[in-house]
Amino acid sequence: MAASALRGGADVIQLRHKSLGRGELLALARKLREITSDSGALFIVNDYVDIAMLSEADGVHLGPDDLSIASARRIAGDRLLIGASASSPGAARAAIADGADYLGSGPAFATPIKTEKTVIGPKGVAAIAAAVGSGVPVFAIGGIDESNVGQLIAEGLRRVCVIRAVSDAPDPEQAARRLRAMLKG
User: Fold this and answer.
1) What is the pLDDT of residue 2?
2) pTM higher than 0.85 for the full model?
């Protein structure tokens, strides 16, 4: 069910907290699962398969320094969606071959969160989406906000991940609604 919801354009809430202790992270994940369970939004935990499983999340997102996709799939089976980060068409195809259900690709724009990464731009994210085909959801990541989301839309991309565009906004709920409307429009 989660995989079809992801392909169908369901909203996704991802818990990404790099410095919180694991016990506190699990407690937060459980609270977020409670909040999202009735909303229709998918709940994804960043980095930790065990936290995702224990909190009954819909999925886990893995980066290059996390547990391998194959190992995560052995632990979770079909219980979790597994997302992977990919910054090139080759890495994207390899992640899908290894069992990833969706991709986060970028950075689409410069971001202070991933300063060591080379920006691939909207065209780079579009190339990754083309390389894996329309059956694989690809989310643009990195530096996305209301001022540049139109560049992604112009490349045919309608899935994005944002942090600062919402968390730094004076009214986070309204910022999320505006971005969502831009992407659905």
Assistant:
1) 72
2) yes
Which tokens belong to 78?
């079909």
Vertex 120, ends 82 and 128: CA angle to 5°? 45
Cα separation, 124 vs 101, whole angstroms: 20
Q: What is the mean pLDDT of the chain?
A: 94
For the CA atoms of 112, 160, 138, 127, the dihedral, rounded to the nearest 10 degrees, stands at: -70
Q: At what angle do helices 89-97 and 121-132 cross, to 10 degrees?
A: 40
